[in-house]
Amino acid sequence: MSSTAPLSVTRTRVVIIGAGPAGLTVANLLRTAGVDCVLLEAESREFIEQRPRAGFMEEWVVRALDRRGLADRLLERAETQGEFEFRFDGERHTMRTGELSGRRHFVYPQPLLVTDLVASYVDRAGGEVRFGVREVALHDIDGDRPAVSYTDPVTGARHRIECDFIAGCDGARGVSRAAVPDGRAVLTRHDHGVAWLALLAEAPPSADGVIFGIHERGFGAHMARSAEVTRYYLQVAPGEDAGNWSHDRVWDELRVRLAAEGAPPLAEGPLIEKAVLDMHNYVLEPMVFGRLHLAGDAAHLVAPIAAKGMNLAINDALLLGDALVAHYQGDDSGLAGYSEACLRRVWQYLEFSQWLSSVLHGASSGDRFRAGTARARLRRLLGSESAAKAFAALYMGEEADL
Fold first, then answer.
1. What is the Cα–Cα distance from 288 to 247, expressed in whole angstroms?
2. Is there a contact between 148 and 138 (Cβ–Cβ < 8 Å)?
């Protein structure tokens, strides 16, 4: 430990680890219901409010947050989308997913949502959060007196918070997932065998919504983020170094992969972010270990192929927050069924992500069978109204009773 000072011991009902969308949603639900909680976050408030992350929110998630008073600014500021384009063989094919499903996507970058949720929990509700904590450790998660300890970043003092429950919302590399005892969980992984170069450009969108470019050189994508910033993706080899992709190389490749007859030219601009993302998934089952409940990427990671990750994290958080509130009102059914309820949607979204991956990456696979079946799936999707409706329902996100 970093300090020899006496250990400070306090108590609360729930300790939440991680101030991302999941942890902040749980914290807001508990605070509103009068359930004492403390939120611990390794980074500063300024950092989490600027950290670039996902931007697509499914309508059922937005409505669920709105019913809890957590979507006012989102509903005021977010753009909505109800269609996207497939581009392949030099042609444009529009999928009108809004008409087909009756639902929309809300475009609201994660930093804005995090900023809103922090303001709701800290500034308006007076919730307790401790930023910049170090050396976080979980204790006695199987016992009657679980606890979380950490080091204060300013004083170096060691603190221990005893509690009833721990909500582990600190992501794939967080301490919560690492605290799960060996042999207590089944970890399932799937590797898509490709990587994406994730790009943010200081450039206006070149289309109203999402473009999926399917090309033998690799997948490419365009996603509007704001009037001044656009998200792009380029399929690259796993392990690729982002530094190998110069400004000119990126834009040359985007023009090739997103080319289609009648399409306006891409609006170019400086690249303010370049990162290589390996496309893989994992699921940790169950999501509950004694008094520790995992949520979001701490329990499952879904590659950004279908933009499902933040939606799943918030789904977990809503289920967990409601279940914890109900526990203190005498009903433990929500906690008992938490893992199973979360995992039903997780596996559904993973299956859809895998299906979409086969369509987007088949042409560039170098495998005639994969390329042929991918093209057959695409033709069926574009030529069959029933297939298009089934796709749209999954792409836009099916309703949840939350």
1. 45
2. yes
